[in-house]
Amino acid sequence: MSGDLVDTGLLGPAHLPYLLRLADGSLILAQRLLEWCGHGPVLEQDIAFANIALDLLGQARLLYTHAGAREGRGRDEDAFAYWRDEQAFLNPTLVELPNGDFAQSVVRTYAYVAYQHGLWPALQTSTDPALAAIAAKSHKETSYHVEHLEGWMIRLGDGTAESHTRMQRALDLVWPYTTELFTEDTVTLAVAADGLGPTTAHLAEQWTGATQAVLATATLQAPPPSPFRSTGQQGRHSDHLGYVLLEMQALTRAHPGARW
Amino acid sequence: MYTQSMDVPSDEVSASPALSDAEASATFDARCARGEFIEAKDWMPAPYRQTLVRQISQHAHSEIVGMLPEGNWLTRAPSLKRKTILLAKVQDEGGHGLYLYAAAETLGTSRDDLIAALHSGRAKYSSIFNYPTPTWADIGVIGWLVDGAAIMNQVPLCRCSYGPYARAMIRICREESFHQRQGFDLLHTLMQGTAAQQAMVQDAVNRWWWPVLMMFGPPDQDSPHAETSVKWGIKRISNDDLRQKFVDAIVEQAAVLGVTLPDPGLKWNAARGAHDFSPIDWTEFWQVVNGHGPCNRERLAARVAAYDEGAWVREAALAYADKQAARQAAAVTPATERRSPP
Ligand SMILES: [Fe+2]
Ligand SMILES: [Fe+2]
Question: In 3-state terms, what secondary structure has residue B274?
Fold first, then answer.
């Protein structure tokens, strides 16, 4: 555990928060997606969302394990997932929003996996080699997720009058939370400066290009830009994350020290 | 019960139109007796088709309803590893539902019709899923005992006379064995843990033991369809024989785990070379089958709600597919033809 490997140790103060932002983003989105399991609109969709959630869980586990190894304080994946409080979670607020109807779940999930789709290729040249390897593996998974969600964006946007209305409503609600993904702060600036990850400007460009094309095909309109900024990545969350964590962590925390 | 669903056109039913029904029936029985597989296009007696649709769809519904009690712990699984295993398992059960609906559809009944029968209460699913899962140990016990009993019931079906069903069962049984091992491993870990964890396991075993024994169905002397099902190779081993085999296997595994099976009458009978066990309370079984178990209403309501709330999604997907087909047709039709009146 201690720094006897060459690539251990944190590369600057932004390294750990950056890994946790990515890991928490994947975990909390997985947690939301698996709420659909057994309750989806069609059996094939239950299976598809479960598949995506499994991939996201896998990403989170790799990232936590890696973060723990770099940090060198003996924290494993479960220490990060189950024993941190709300303010220590650094996922963007987008992924903690409630599922809402299927339209809202599709729009939210699409927005985030499209973001990941721009992120993973950029991370493959990270100065953190383990992060680059996780990114390479995750990119293959995310490509499938994006394709799946794009299909639903278009099918529901350009489906019936009702599905179009629901999708536009979901977009109006969810889209303002995407601004946070591309907001520069001390962590993203340090990450870009240290060569750990891309600039937010690079990610914004990738994401905007991809999502604009899909929204156009789906006959949907992104809401006009607003001054609203969510702040989950700073550890300042919406009303919703507390309940997600309460449920996720309850059993584990009721038995401190137990193994499962 | 399913007669309104038996809407296969008569010319498709018979691949041997020259034969009389009696001759066709004799040929069919002989094929079953030789252990040949019957395929979807082959002639089959109406009651055979009917029995299979009932059995396969009931099995498919059980997989889908079975996702609910375990799904109850997806958000709360106590480690990321266990969460991953549980989600993969619940997803497998959804996959089993898919293969089985597909196998039932080869007999000429659509998935929509089968689901409508479930939602209206005409079709049954395994009663075991009408019990609640109040603790994490329930997830382990479901894997160990419920999947374990399902394997016992289903392995003989891998050789059942209807080809599509037999092939689906081979694939399913392979995955169910994984589930059982994972359930056992979950419980084994808890039994190595704290006193509270051990107590959780014992409590879950106490609650599930008798309902699991009921999964093998009523005693042989009360099983109405058994005789023809055996003749047709749909059922190969009797309910009581399967139950006995299960009890004998589980007694040893329970000893490894260190849990007590909640039956003071359970003991080795050297003369029979098998374990004796106390009589089963069949009143409870019939109560649950007939809709009065702890969770019958909830389970069905959850399925109906998912289906109803998803109606707009399915409609939109169809509408979009129609639009796409129309756009493609318009794109390949030469402009001159497009202008001519329909
Ligand atoms: Fe299954
Ligand atoms: Fe299973």
Answer: strand
Which residue in A has a C-alpha nearest to residue B310's C-alpha?
Answer: A41
Distance from CA of B184 to the nearest CA of A (A): 12
Contacts of B64 (CB under 8 A, 6+ apart): A38, A43, B93, B94, B97, B125, B303
Distance B99 CA to ligand 2 centre (A): 13
Nearest to B83 by CA among A13, A231, A54, A143: A54
Indicate the DSSP class of residue B289: I
Decide if A78 touches B, using CB distance below 8 A: yes
Q: Where are the domains of chain A?
A: 2-222+229-254
Question: How distant is the alpha carbon of residue A252 from its chain centre?
Answer: 23
HSE, side-chain direction, 13 A CA sphere, residue A62: 17
pLDDT given for residue B118 in this prediction: 97
In tens, the pLDDT along B178-232 reads 999 999 999 999 999 999 999 999 999 999 999 999 999 999 888 766 778 888 8
Please name the member of B91, B97, B310 whose beta carbon is closest to the beta carbon of A102.
Answer: B310
Spatial distance between the Cα atoms of A92 and A194, rounded to a whole number of angstroms? 22
pLDDT, one tens digit per residue, over A53-98 is: 999 999 999 999 999 999 999 999 999 999 999 999 999 999 999 9
Tokens of B156: 């003989």
The predicted structure's pLDDT at residue B173: 95
Diameter over CA atoms, chain A: 61
Architecture of domain A2-222+229-254: Up-down Bundle (1.20)
Contacts of B161 (CB under 8 A, 6+ apart): B31, B32, B35, B36, B37, B38, B232, B233, B234
Report the residue from A102, A160, A259 with minimal CB separation from B315.
A160
Helix extents (H) in B108-238: 111-119, 136-141, 147-154, 163-191, 195-214, 226-231
The candidate with the shortest Cα–Cα distance to A206, out of A81, A100, A120, is A120
Among all residues of chain B, which has the CA nearest to that of A77?
A: B80
Q: Which residues of A touch B314 (CB under 8 A)?
A: 41-42
